[in-house]
Here is the input.
Amino acid sequence: MAAEGTQQQSALDVDDPVIRMRNADVTFDGGESYVLDDVSVDIDRNEIVGIVGESGSGKSMLASAMLDAIPDPGVLTGKIEYLAEDGREIDVLELSKEELRQMRWEDVSMVFQGAMSSFNPTMSIKGHFVETLKAHDYEVEPGIERAHELLEDLYLEPERVLNSYPHELSGGMQQRALIALSLVLEPEVLVMDEPTAALDLLMQRSILMLLRDLQDKYDLTMVFITHDLPLVAALADRLSVMYAFKLVEIGPTEEIVGHAAHPYTRALLNSTPNLDAPLEDMRPIEGQSPAPINLPSGCAYHPRCPLADDQCRSAVPDFEQTTQDHAAACYHWEDSIDQIPLNYEEMLDDDGGSQTDGDYV
Amino acid sequence: MSNQPVLSLENVEVHFENQRGFLGFGEEDETVRAVDGVTIDIEERDVVSLIGESGCGKTTLGKTCIGLQRPTGGSVKYRGEDMWDVRDGKSDSGLDWDEIRQSLQIIHQDPGASLNPNRRLVSILSEPLRQVSPDLSKGEKRERIYQLLEHVGMNPAADFAERYPHQLSGGEQQRVALCRALLMNPDVILADEAISALDVSLRVEMMDLMLDLQEEFDTSYVFISHDLSNARYFTEHGDGKIGVMYLGELVETGPAEQLINDPKHPYTKVLRWATPDLSLQEAGDMPMRKIDIPDPINPPSGCRFHTRCPEAREVCKRETPDTYQINGQQAACFRRDESHEYWDSPELMD
Here is the structure.
């Protein structure tokens, strides 16, 4: 563990981590199948990280692991630390059930896809706020005041929404009310698993814009998990890409979009319909992503990778640093950049679009 | 006959009466104006994409196209004959309602829910064949099913044919749903968010497959999506047009690239803004004054977009814009008329 940990350090470390995850594994079937495989990642304070992967790549497991919320009978091992702004250092996997419950709302909060199933249909939205505040021994009145402000931040009419039942709100309103609820205990970190997936694009984009505002206003750290790379690229400061239950690439958003180093990331970028790329250059990724059992040996992407050789088939690649803060788990990342063109390259500036600072509003 | 559109919608309205239950005595009945005054043609081997946000009426319009929803106003013509006259026996065209329905098929967003979980693929796919070609022997049916499965990349077909839907991935389930629709030899397939539930990386593959099979089976698509980049890919490859819907009305139609690169309606610009791209250029502020779409029960007066439109002026509140023709695009916005009183009208303040 130590050896690998140090090797990855330079590219993956951040200045002021709020969550530090080391060698996290999630196994099912008594260790037979891995659904999260040796993932180490730091989340910097006040940054927005996008975690991108296809269905079944383990991205939701990564999110759940941050809060030690893996569903039974999954087993989570490794080390996950939460470093609070007030100096508390919490080893998440050592917490008691009650301590964990507290941390989950007050320090690190989570929003899932499909707000409808997160709300109790027989309770008004206000009821949810009151219940949450009481369960964590917060004072209700100032809490509801905060709720008002949060709902307004999310372009909702506080009175109307608080007095509604979940079914009386549209999907986009529900999802925004849920985000407000998740922030009412003033957590430092907000982990969101496909928070906009069931919504139409316009609402998705609007919510992303509001999240950026919220992050600014409340100094939040956000982890945004999605299968939709272009969507989160508009929001995130850094992106990390998952394939077959492992992290395969991590770096600043403009680095990943402009100079993706892992062949999988490049294929993923090219497979995504977008408005700018020439139509004939969009193509699907050949082959299928692997299931948790019978993972390919070596680099799990090798059966689909145009650059794969014997080394890729036999040994799992470590992270290699491509620039100071950008790393990819690939032996051939230099060839990958040279040989796999990105179909929207013409749209980027000469220096790969690094003119933006990830801030798009 | 060949120059005639397969489907031709004229001034179609679909209004739902939303009756108050018994506790709501005395309150007025509410009418949801799901589709209002839509005119559009679907040609042979055409692709028409309908885009818009949730609740804009695109699904209702799609269902009206294929005869699953009866319009409350206007007409839906199948090869020149009003299909609801045929249905009511008021037509002497010799067309048969069952034939019309058979030639208009649908694939849904959630393929898992549209396939019978208790039947193997071979039995699911035999059903349409039994309807269309009842004379085929069992062996011949199997032969055709295997051929089609292989064609959509489900190899080995004999193995797949014996599986149940839950043994397939989402992408495979959607391909089976597409096969089932195609086996009816349809003229038009309504693909209602058919690729939205698939991973981003699988969408291009599914769209390619649908277009490839369009050649083979000589069918048209009505493609419903909220994603402009998917609609662009599908429509441009299929050489069709995109229709942008807002609160039940078509606000702009045109060829894909043209409509995306040079939108003529402010709402189309909003949709373009909402579509993520990888150019990393700043998307800028939201070109819209309000985030939430108004209630279709009481749609705003005048131009329905005026409550959110960044360009709205007083006149937009009062008057409904006509549809203007601009180089193959149609847009319902006063800004397309240089001499309209809009330009002298004061800007709307919230």
Notes: Chain B has a mean pLDDT of 90.
